[in-house]
Design brief:
Blueprint lengths: L1 H11 L4 H35 L3 H4 L3 E5 L3 E5 L4 H4 L14 E3 L7 H4 L8 E4 L8 E3 L1 H4 L1 H16 L8 H21 L3 H8 L2 H5 L3 H14 L14 H4 L6 H16 L2 H18 L4 H40 L9 H22 L7 H33 L4 H16 L2 H23 L4 E3 L2 E3 L1
Antiparallel strand pairs: 1-2, 2-3, 3-4, 4-5, 6-7
Helix pairs in contact: 2-7, 7-16, 8-14, 8-15, 11-13, 13-14, 14-15, 15-16
Length: about 450
Amino acid sequence: MTNKNFSTKTKKYKIGLQHVLLLFVMAITFFYFYFFSLVPNMIAGFVVPLFQPTLEQQARIGFVDFDGLVWGSTAKDKELANIGKEISKDAINKEYLFDFSWSARTEEEHGYSKSKTEWYVRAPILGEEAIILEPWIGFIILAITFAFVSALFLTMFMPSGIGMMAVLFDRQIDNTKVKLRLQTGFSDDVIELLIMPDDKLAEKEISEVRSAFRLVWDRTMTEDIASPFQSARFEDVFDEETDIVFFRNEAIYTRIREFFSDFVVIEIQDTKNALLWRRNRLLIMRGFRLYMSHHFTEKYANFVTGLAYGGAAFLIVAVGIRGLKFIPAARPSFILLAITLEFVMLSLLALTLIYTEEEERMDRMLKKMEDANRSQLEALRGQQADIHQLSNALVGQTAEIIRARVETAIEDYMTSGDQIQKVVAEEIAKKIMFSLRDEKPSYKTYGGETRR
């Protein structure tokens, strides 16, 4: 029954066509907004303040903010008249010129030329030639990344039936439950109590959790049986006045940590927090941590590291080509592509490392392995003693043991009510048959005469 329930949940939380379609529609919408609006404003907000005329220079020349992400230097007397207007050839002197619009420019009309898919940057500090930026090469990776991150972020708040990240979080909750059951050997009911949120556990009665907590307590015994210092009994620490939430979070979790490992307790706590996200989708970091720590980093850590190294290799090649003058200084878009690609890969690597669990010290791992196997060693010792006694009995050295076993078997047989009734009935039947045979007349022959 338990396996059936788990398989049903796993089947329920599967990625379907609706998840993929919604994600891509949202990503395309965000990409259009980011690439054609946000990215130009971001680049303009970075470049213009960095290379515009200084305050001393602006006292001598005019610097105008034209319509549509265009800035240019002009004569001081024309500055106020051109603010907010469309740029024209007569309005600029071409000493400083920054154009991040998606409009084509011509020498005849605007005093400089560029296509719709180019941005134009000119300043004395950048050299005599204008810098031509091609956003479809240099910044498309940045826009795609922002678009997909935004789309994935929104799907964390959606129902699992349509949200991509929501269904991944829900599926990971159920998968982690199964993993905990396999790692600890506890039943589904015990696992549910271990990962239950604190407020839900506080609503439980003592009688509902006592048997499960006793099972965990006894299962996580770590002391040696031969040691004079034994662990406290469950009844000594758990009674009707016990705070079951505090007892679970402190005593039970501590014993699980010592008997199994820190990773098991971390999985329990992260799953418990993820259940809070399942109840309230605003708590997205609870579900995000479970997915990243116990699925993404475990499955894709090497893949992300490889991507980061690949991006670094691409950047090195791009810089090398630029050093050989195959990429002109006036068109650095390919270099920007390599930089943004490596930025994205390193950011993903950093996120992966943040949610990667720390490795446990080797001495603690060995100690917990020893504790986990101690009960098995004690069982083997008991079997060894029994085998030794049996071997002694077979060679005739312990006849007393055999006699004791036989007496025990006879005693068990005789103390069984069913066996006694059976034996008594058989004996009574035999006595009756013997009595009937004894009452029949007996005939003997004496000298040819038969007498009774």
